[in-house]
Amino acid sequence: MNNSLLIINQLFEIQQKLREMGKAESFERNFNRLFAVFEEDGFIVQNPTNEAYSDSRTDCEASIAGSLSSKMKITKTLKPIIYRKDNANVQLLQKAVVIVEKT
Amino acid sequence: MKSVNFGIDLGTTNSLIAKYENGKAVVYKNPVGLKETLASVVAYRPERMLVGDKAREYLTKDPVNVFGGFKRKMGTDEKYYVVNIDENVTPVELSSIILKELKKFVPPTEPMEAAVITIPASFDSMQSNATLKAGQEAGFKDVFLLQEPVAACLAFFNETSAKENPAGYWLVYDLGGGTFDVALVKASDEELKIVDHEGNNFLGGMDLDFAIIDSIIVPAIIRQTGIENFNEELRVKYGKFETLYYQVMYYAEEAKKELSQVSDTVIEFSATLDGKAYDFYIPVTRKDLDNIFAPLISETIALLNKVMERNKLSAADINQLVLVGGSTYVPQVREQLAAQTGITLNYAIDPSTAVAVGAAFYAAGKYYEPAVSIGLENDGPLPEITGLPDGITAAVADVDIAISYNRSSRDSEEILLITCTGEYDKKQYRIIRKDGGFDTGLTVLKAKKTEFLPLIPGMANLFTLHVYNETGDEIHSLTNEIAITQGMFNIDGQPLPHDICIEVDDLENKTTKLEVIFERNTLLPQKRTLYREISKTIKKGSADTIIINIIEGDKNSRPSSNLGIGCIEINGKALQSDLVKGSDIEIQIQLDDSRVLSTAVFLVMTQQEFKNVFSLSEKKINISRLKEQYAQLENELGYTIRNFQNNNDDVWEIKASALMAELHTVKEKLFKLKEKDKSDEKYVIAEKITRISQEYDKLGGNERIASLLEEYFTGKDRVQEVINGADFEKDELRKQFQKLEQSETSFINSKNVSVVEGKMRQLEDLYHRALGSTTSFLITVFIEYKTYTREEFKDHNAAKSVIKMADEALQKERYPEFRRHVFSISSLVKSARYNSNIDFKGTGIG
Lengths: 103, 846
Known about the structure:
The complex is a heterodimer of chains A (103) and B (846).
Chain A: H1 2-20, H2 24-40, E1 43-46, E2 52-53, E3 60-64, E4 72-79, E5 81-86, E6 89-94, E7 96-102
Parallel strand pairs in A: 3-7
Antiparallel strand pairs in A: 1-5, 2-4, 4-7, 5-6
Helix pairs in contact in A: 1-2
Chain B: E1 2-3, E2 6-10, E3 14-21, E4 24-27, E5 38-39, E6 41-45, E7 48-51, H1 53-56, E8 66-68, E9 80-82, E10 87-89, H2 91-103, E11 114-119, H3 125-137, E12 142-147, H4 148-159, E13 168-175, E14 180-187, E15 192-200, H5 205-225, H6 230-234, H7 242-258, E16 264-273, E17 276-285, H8 286-310, E18 318-324, H9 331-341, E19 345-346, H10 354-364, E20 367-368, E21 399-404, E22 408-409, E23 413-422, E24 428-433, E25 442-444, E26 448-454, E27 460-468, E28 480-486, E29 499-506, E30 511-518, E31 526-533, E32 545-553, E33 563-571, E34 584-591, E35 597-603, E36 608-614, H11 623-646, H12 650-672, H13 681-698, H14 701-724, H15 730-742, H16 744-750, H17 753-771, H18 775-786, H19 796-811, H20 815-828
Parallel strand pairs in B: 2-11, 11-12, 13-18, 18-19, 22-28
Antiparallel strand pairs in B: 1-20, 2-3, 3-4, 3-5, 6-7, 6-8, 7-25, 9-10, 13-14, 14-15, 16-17, 21-23, 23-26, 24-25, 24-27, 27-28, 29-30, 29-32, 31-34, 32-33, 34-35, 35-36
Helix pairs in contact in B: 2-3, 4-10, 5-7, 5-8, 8-9, 11-12, 11-13, 12-13, 14-15, 14-17, 15-17, 18-20, 19-20
């Protein structure tokens, strides 16, 4: 399982880098395919970037940049959220590592 | 009297709880997030209180409401003013909050009235008493204190070979996330005693991360960007590089962890600084860290030497140096300690949990008097409370709670309304999502409260609402389970009435099977992409086809028993190049609100896309596939009739024969039909085949299913026995067996004859594989092959030569080689078995 997490994190990182370079579109189908393979094995990967952030989100480990506000947003994701789905049970396997800023 | 058993490491940075059980200490995990450690931080957010990691996130941003490191202030008259609640809190109160949170790690069925709590070696009587008070405020009837270095030694003595000869001096080196302590412990037959200690409250693993930033990352950024004063700017609170600061903190920690395993790594990231985009690529080696970490580690060793010198001890006088605290994982720490002290290091147990584990061992030998009756907090008639283990104090409800919410949702979050009546003042609630991704923290209860519950898409999201009284004890009678299904139900009452499936090839059984795309009751619209492989080569220009057949019905039944709702055929004439077996195919299936089905197929090898939109009012039928379905049904029915005959099941045999006769009535018409036939004939025939297939599925009813299942379970025992005796690939066979076992519930629940029969075929295949992995069986088969005549082999000369090699391998007991040869011989034997479905074409999708 640890190896699967390692591979998912590496894939996620490669995807982020390609996005920053503006080249992600050409590889989108390949990434979708790869993440679909992991999903078949029960690993659900979520990128919370641009989602609202609140102190009840225990699916993320956040560093808060700038000042606090009642409306915060995830602006950067260094590691994605990974859930493990086993039949009907879902368990958080990895918290996202994110940077949060006020909207 | 009962044994205390619970041990708590109430740390400055992190805290843990463990329990002694059956000779071992078990460290409990946080039910939210499943970490063993709880950050010793409390945050008073507006209307709610957070404890642990989530609270730590706000530590630097909201220091007037968030508190950590309060352990250092235990036993003082220091008070913290909390702006959000307009009240003062003491270090004792904050510690008791941490202890209460740790209690929540333990399942509610385990009584918890007493605990051992660890304290630093440096704690004086005032500080010790303050810790005792925090334990009592957290609801512990009895609290026992234990010094942290003693707890660590106990953990090592009980779980490693150190216990064999513990007498003498031990040094406990505790390097945590933010603090460092070293203690000299003297062990004798009777006791463990702290002789001396030293420490630094501002030296820990985080300082190692800062050293990486200062010495490696910052210089590299300055070299590349030339930004003046970058180092100073990086650390400015709310400064322009603050986001980057948190990024590099993370990368530094990751590099430190990685270099504990490998000798070099690269810190790689992109950032925009002063409007310009940069890519940073910073190679780091373990050797670089040796130099950078050296001054910090030397500082800890200087404190260690101070203790040694003060007690006039040399390395030879110390039994072992026991390593405690997560930062002792860092290889440089271990290497420099070994080199500079000359003392044998002991890091045989997890340094992060050693103190809690030791406390649990100590707790096993401490006793307390459990409460005789259930404690009650209010007057009035006693409510009946049953089912609690001895010693659990039950908080009683003087408040009523009603909750309302939608049990199904299409949104990413769902609103929950909590309505309270009675004495809800000063009570708190907390809602936790079962997977650990959401926790409201302790929130003040009011007459009406609303919470937005975030939902994971496409599944049942389970939450638990807990309610706590003024002292933080849970009122179990008010616990509510909340289940909200996201995207699976149509709240307008229009769920998908049947499963939507795709027909794919089952090459092992030379047939096709259904794979579910959208399950029954799924909420529309839905979209899904399937990734599969082409199961046969299709030549460019040939008449061979790939068939994407979308079917509505029961996912557990055979394809021919269901309704085809959409079909795309791609033949060789439409291909730009050959499509090779094993190449990828992507099938995107979309069902909109009006149940219009859209299918897009992408062939990765030829880079071609085929699209189609179907209305569910039109049927699509592929005639060649229909013919194949007919042939499969005819085969299966024939097989079943023979089985009925063998088992003398006369009634079922008559029914099955009648179905076969009915099937034969369409045979001639079907096989005369041309692919481009425009008449209604194909619909009439398809309808009839579907109906006969459904009748066949029901044949014999529950009695036949029961009989098949009995046969299956008998066969299963036989297969298990053969697997246990296998000489090759035993693990793989067991895995396959377990996989089959795991699918039992679903195929038994399907109550479908063809599904059970399919599983029996799989079981039979596994049986043959297991036999083929058993040397004694292979020898029997080999002896039989040797009696075969020339005519019984496809290539007699080849067979003769392999038989010779097999003989030699057998004589020299080279069994893996012998096995390979037997397999080769079997492939040279003429067999009628493989000819039965040799013409199977299927859908072309594997």
